[in-house]
Amino acid sequence: MASSKLHALWNHPAGPKTIHFWAPTFKWGISIANVADFAIPPEKLSYPQQIVVAVSGVIWSRYGVVIIPKNWNLISVNLAMAGTGMYQLSRKIRHDYYNQEEADVAEE
Q1: How far apart are the C-alpha atoms of 57 and 82, rounded to whole Å?
Q2: At what angle do helices 72-93 and 47-66 cross, to 10 degrees?
Q3: In whole numbers, what is the pLDDT of the chain averaged over residues?
Q4: Can you say whether the dihedral through the CA atoms of 69, 6, 74, 27 is positive or negative?
Q5: Each residue of 40-91: pLDDT tens digit?
Q6: Do the beta carbons of residue 89 and residue 58 sit within 8 Å?
Q7: Given 49, 53, 70, 97, which residue has the most CB atoms within 10 angstroms?
Q8: Would you identify the family this protein belongs to, as annotated (predicted)?
């Protein structure tokens, strides 16, 4: 049973013998690095970098849904990229704009 599932995965059109498997697999490194960056202070985050991560995640998640055969690795890694990018952007925006407003109110 396990050997037939392994054989089916190996010979799948989006399986490990194709770039369609390995390209999204390497993108997991970007998502994991973005999760590791949750620990760094928001002032060290980059707007351009996080915008690119979030937008590319959204765009490629959509693309991963419409291609046939569905590449679940592509869909899931890009959902993770979109989620982590949006979270990091929200941290940066809250730090840059909302904390500044609170500081301005405290000075008055």
Answers
A1: 4
A2: 150
A3: 84
A4: negative
A5: 999 999 999 999 999 999 998 888 888 877 778 889 999 999 999 999 999 9
A6: no
A7: 53
A8: Belongs to the mitochondrial pyruvate carrier (MPC) (TC 2.A.105) family.
Count of residues making up the chain: 108
Tokens of 42: 């928001």
Phi, psi of 18 (to 5 degrees): -125, 160
- Token look-up 């690095």 returns 33
Can you tell me the distance from the alpha carbon of 98 to that of 104, in angstroms, rounded to the nearest whole number? 10
57-95 core/surface letters (b: 16 or more CB in 10 A; e: else): bbebbeebeeeeeebebbbebbbbbbbbbbebbebbeee
